[in-house]
Amino acid sequence: MSRRVVVAAICAAALVSGCDLSAGSVLRGEMRGMELDPPLAKPSFVFPAADGRMYDFRKETDGDLALIFFGYTHCPDICPVHMNNIMAVLKKMSESDVRRVHVLFVTTDPARDTEQRLRDWLGMMDLRIIGLRPTAEEAIRLQSQLGIQPALVLEPRAGHEGNYDVSHAAQVIAFAPDNLGRVAYAAGTRQTDWAHDIPLLLRMKAK
Question: What's the confidence (pLDDT) of residue 169?
């Protein structure tokens, strides 16, 4: 029996039994996303949320799974596709697991993405998505800290000053319950990939 088959069998058995998996042990090479080696340290930040409160990332997500994405509400494709695919998978999971998954949408366009705009846009998908509105400078610092190319506001066409695009990274960063950034998910990640990886990520515990 090949090593890959053995590892897959171990993972399947752990999921059925509900046992926690030691992060980075039997899961290496089994994730559908791109595994980060070395993993990312979990950042500390407090940003205004779309619901008007201040959101403390480390406090709110400690010991849970956090999925962070940087985008903007006027994005024509990648942003809504990523968010809709993740939430479609969460809707099929148990409520106990869903409560341990935090989906964060961090705007890279705070000039247009007001609290109301974020609430309205996220409400069209799922209000469980946490919309965060840092300043442009704060967003750039956090992206750089996570090794993500900072977003860039593009020059609008003449006569369309208020209608511009924002060039931004397309990956979702997954911080597992061991509080480390373990996996990155590029644009084009399918619902079947999320459905495969999220249960495994939820069971990653610190050694």
Answer: 78
